[in-house]
Amino acid sequence: MIQRTFRRVARTAVALALGGFTAAAVTGCAPGDEGAAEGGEPGAAVAFPAEPPDGPMPEIGPAPEGYTPTASGSPSTDIWMGTLVREGGALSVPDLGRGTDRDGYDNQPSFLLDGSAILHTAAIDRTQTEIMRLAASGAEPGASERLTNTAEASEFSALQIPGQDAFSAIHEIRGKQYLWRYDLSGASLGPIFATAEPVGYHAWANEHVVAMFILGDPPTLQVGDALSGDIRVVAERPGRSIHRIPGTEEISFVRKVSDEEWWIERLDPAAGTTERITLTLPGREDYAWTPEGEIVMGDGGRLYAWAEGSDWTGIADFSDLGVGGITRLAVSPDGSRIAIVANRPGG
To answer: Residue 198 to residues 160, 171, 195, 204, 322: CA-CA distances in angstroms?
Structure first.
């Protein structure tokens, strides 16, 4: 059982000035819309503009003096894959196994919308990261397929775009970080925004509205429309774990109120409000949603789950497998598979 528990507190709605980012701009497959693709699967594609709608791309000059690629500081991590089982309302992971197994950075897993595979980031060397694809089940450790192959740039934080046979990722080149689009083979389709920079992480609320973690002092959470080019700041000091809440067009993120107080909150991009959901585990910011509405987080070698009306509860301990330092997680759209990132020993 978890040693420290937290009572869920009453949600507090906080109005955010979105500066004209209205409900009319946030459309797509809301629950109950007839003809909408379940989970945002391809089928109702939204055509993005050929050029970023918020203006022309600036010229990218030489890297600034002292620039260090993100890959140079990446830890040595592995991705573990397992089956997420639900019995009598309780979750468990009975068969966790390695999805990657090498000294190096394999991280940031996200499931394709059909659940067949994950996209993940891999450090090719100490200066470059690329996007890989790994089958969700049946793959041997290390069987990832390389998708992107950019000699001058790095890619990370890949997510399939709802309604498209394409994914978005952060495109890092000479000290700049833009949100970029690629087809599912890894071919570049170009930038999504010209003025949102530097982007660290992101999550799609629907087929064209995206929440972005923008690095800065302080870092901000910004919501952008890939069709109109409208971009607005909606929160300060978010964490890196940003997700679409299953069955909705709402976004969840971690708000770091202080060094000791971190809340998972929900953002309604249309209404411009946030609500507190629950406190995170102490010092933990990475989490994932199940389609049933639970939140899962890791701490050390253990996995915990939260559900509305309950506290954080331990559901698995992978320490005997050598799993430790769990950070990022992903759950497949149908809730049957889970991907877990953990540190390699000595990494």
So the answer is: 20, 10, 9, 17, 35
- Sign of the alpha-carbon torsion through 245, 248, 249, 250: negative
Note if the pTM is more than 0.85.
yes
Cα 291 versus chain centre, distance? 15
Which residues have a Cβ under 8 Å from the Cβ of 224 and sit 6 or more positions away? Answer: 54, 179, 192, 193, 196, 209, 210, 212, 230, 231, 232
pLDDT digits (tens, 9 = 90+) for 161-219: 999 999 999 999 999 999 999 999 999 999 999 999 999 999 999 999 999 999 999 99
Q: Is 102 exposed, middle or buried (0-12, 13-18, 19+ CB in 10 A)?
A: middle
The domain of 152 spans 78-343
CATH number of the domain where residue 99 is located:
2.120.10.30
DSSP secondary structure code for residue 28 in this structure: S
The token duo for 140 is: 């041997």
Q: Residues 285, 264: contact at Cβ < 8 Å?
A: no
Residue 50 in any domain: the answer is no
Cα(256)–Cα(100) distance, integer angstroms: 31
DSSP 8-state class, residue 270: T
What separation in angstroms does the CA of 317 have from each of 5, 23, 312, 338?
17, 43, 14, 14
**How far are the Cα atoms of 75, 155, 272 from residue 167, in angstroms, in the given order?**
24, 11, 26
DSSP letter at 19 equals S
Residue 135 lies in a domain: yes
State yes or no: cis peptide before 198, omega within 30 of 0. Answer: yes
| Residues pairing with 120 in the sheet | 132
pLDDT digits (tens, 9 = 90+) for 68-105: 888 888 999 999 999 999 998 899 999 999 999 999 99
The total number of structural domains in the chain stands at 1
